[in-house]
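TA notes, week 10

Several of you asked for a full example with nothing omitted. So below is the full record: structure tokens for the whole chain, then the designed sequence directly under it. When grading your own attempts, check the secondary structure regions first.
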């Protein structure tokens, strides 16, 4: 029974609109999870994997049209277009609701309507937020069980009057009498998909997709798009950031948060095993950070999620053993390949495909015989965070962990050096605001391979005007003394040689850069002042035991490419022009100062 009047009312109202066959209020139990899996297996939507190798693991194959976030169908429906800003799609909220009500009408016919009470952040923590997702997808229920804290305990915290964020979701595929999904992933065609946010009402309406951030509404929709609006109003930060703890050989520990665009290395960095002897890295979160000032004036971060929804391709025992061990049980795999003995396989898993496999489309596939990959490039694993061998002891601490440094970065084959440090907070905000990256497969409808600006890795995730978001970041810098603010760095693991090879080995070797960052936070670490910021001297990056990066490569990774940066200035000017008078004067000043230093 739902004791919360407003919640009960909302559930009734939604049920009247979508007319499901039945309603189920989720209790978060193991039995409930098992039921969801049983239902999807019976429908032919899920395959049980090898019980010995991957106990309690299941494979799902989505519809080929429903494999990633759909940015062109994602809307910030604030009262005015101005409030949504130039980087968001906008439709008048009344008009959008009218359209979506038309789609929602009767859309759960033949299905069960699940009501998922969930907490982003530890249940009952003062920084946590409660959401309630209504969905007709048992796949979504199972994933939410892993990614968030679900169930009766959340309803108890909500009580009779507590605040919750309503998150409405349907796959948009009603069933006729006697009809079943029959093994076909249910979703609506692209032009019927809507991932909508109503920031003033703090409400989410999603229709037509069953995949990832489109459907697991606690993640990008609540914890970023709606949370950025709350954070702006309440003076905190909701960011697309990993959080890691790093300990030096003396046992001294710091926490670092990093914003890289989708599929640009957050999960990998969060779980890395340092190659520098004596150092240790532990994982707090791999995708989202909520940060508030503590009584001591420092920023404290929590990971609002409870699981990882990580990119499978490229993940191997060599590149990320901690992720491989986190997903060896109780894990949902989506759009990876299936081997003959019901194991999983993907490109970059570290060994050849064992004979004939079934690709993510359900067809037979043999290595070397097809130019298409066996796993979709945005194939994902959903695994409980507590299963990560490197999970930080404080990962569920409701008080959060104190952040010493922010990293910004993206995929930049040229121009941007391996690492540089900002001169000041405002210069650091400038670095965040100019992040650019080669587009990846994490979004369906943007052209892969081209560089696009993705400020703070938040381009698809900011729930209001991006220029005002920049200003919010500037303001955060004046809320405490500068020695308490995190130091800000810009990193780039993705430099390439003229013939297209990685110039930097990346993954565990990135610990060499983290070591320098750590030292800089202690006022140590050799650096030179350059036009673009503080840069390590070539010998300041510890290369002990690193044989495949020559002195020459190191120099290339750590020089200021003046010509490249001058070209960059023009691109930044174009980028900034989008924000009109919402662009903070502080950032304009930073750009002018950079141009002056380079000329
Ligand atoms: P989202 O979950 O989409 O937000 O992605 P993410 O930022 O967590 O990216 P993830 O760590 O999953 O990495 C995405 C891809 O980048 C994978 O194929 C990785 O193998 C690859 N990758 C990660 N770190 C590095 C690195 O240091 N160097 C190189 N060359 N590739 C990397
Ligand atoms: C991303 O695209 O940044 C992700 C995956 O983390 S999704 O949950 O689909 O947004
Ligand atoms: Mn992400």
């Amino acid at each position: 029974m739902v004791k919360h009047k407003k919640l009960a009312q909302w559930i009734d109202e939604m049920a009247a609109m979508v007319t499901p066959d039945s309603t189920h209020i989720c209790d978060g139990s193991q039995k409930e999870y098992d039921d969801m899996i049983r239902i999807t297996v019976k429908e032919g939507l899920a395959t049980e994997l090898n019980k010995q190798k991957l106990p309690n693991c299941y494979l799902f194959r989505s519809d080929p049209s429903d494999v990633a976030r759909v940015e062109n169908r994602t809307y910030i429906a604030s009262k005015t277009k101005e409030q949504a800003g130039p980087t968001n799609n906008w439709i008048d909220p009344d008009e959008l609701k009218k359209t979506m009500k038309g789609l929602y009408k009767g859309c759960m016919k033949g299905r069960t309507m699940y009501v998922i009470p969930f907490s982003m952040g530890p249940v009952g923590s003062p920084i946590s937020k409660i959401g309630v997702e209504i969905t007709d997808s048992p796949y979504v229920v199972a994933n939410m069980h892993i990614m968030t804290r679900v169930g009766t305990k959340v309803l108890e915290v909500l009580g009779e009057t507590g605040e919750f964020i309503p998150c409405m979701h349907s796959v948009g595929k009603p069933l006729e009498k006697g009809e079943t999904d029959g093994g076909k992933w249910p979703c609506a065609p692209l032009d019927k998909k809507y991932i909508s946010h109503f920031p003033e009402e703090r409400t989410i309406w999603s229709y037509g997709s069953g995949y990832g951030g489109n459907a697991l509404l606690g993640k990008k929709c609540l914890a970023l798009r709606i949370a950025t609006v709350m954070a702006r109003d309440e003076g905190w930060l909701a960011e697309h950031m990993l959080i890691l703890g790093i300990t030096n050989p003396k046992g001294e520990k710091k926490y670092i948060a990093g914003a890289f665009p989708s599929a640009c290395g957050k999960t990998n960095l969060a779980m890395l095993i340092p190659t520098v002897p004596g150092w240790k890295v532990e994982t707090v979160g791999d995708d989202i950070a909520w940060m508030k000032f503590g009584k001591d004036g420092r920023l404290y971060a929590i990971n609002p999620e409870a699981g990882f929804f990580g990119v499978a391709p490229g993940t191997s025992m060599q590149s990320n053993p901690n992720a491989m061990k986190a997903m060896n049980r109780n894990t949902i795999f989506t759009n990876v390949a299936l081997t003959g003995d019901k194991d999983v396989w993907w490109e970059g898993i570290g060994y050849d495909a064992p004979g004939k496999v079934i690709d993510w489309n359900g067809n037979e596939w043999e290595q070397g015989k097809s130019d298409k990959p066996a796993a979709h490039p945005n194939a994902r694993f959903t695994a409980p965070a507590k299963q990560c061998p490197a999970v930080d002891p404080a990962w569920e601490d409701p008080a959060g962990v104190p952040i010493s440094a922010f990293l910004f970065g993206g995929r930049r084959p040229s121009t941007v050096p391996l690492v540089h440090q900002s001169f000041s907070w405002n210069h650091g905000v400038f670095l965040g605001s100019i992040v650019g990256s080669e587009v990846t497969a994490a979004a369906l409808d943007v052209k892969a391979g081209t560089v696009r600006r993705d400020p703070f890795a938040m381009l698809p995730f900011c729930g209001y005007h991006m220029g005002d978001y920049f200003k919010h970041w500037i303001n955060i810098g004046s809320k405490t003394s500068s020695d308490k603010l995190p130091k800000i760095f810009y990193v780039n693991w993705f430099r390439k040689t003229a013939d297209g090879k990685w110039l930097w080995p990346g993954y565990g070797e990135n610990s060499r850069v983290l070591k320098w960052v750590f030292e800089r936070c202690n006022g140590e670490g050799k650096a030179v002042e350059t036009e673009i910021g503080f840069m390590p001297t070539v010998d300041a990056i510890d290369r002990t035991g690193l044989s495949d990066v020559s002195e020459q490569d190191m120099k290339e990774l750590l020089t200021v490419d003046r010509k490249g940066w001058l070209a960059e200035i023009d691109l930044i000017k174009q980028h900034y022009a989008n924000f009109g008078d919402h662009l903070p004067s502080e950032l304009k000043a930073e750009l002018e100062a950079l141009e002056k230093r380079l000329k």
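The mean pLDDT is 96. Use that as a sanity check on your answer.
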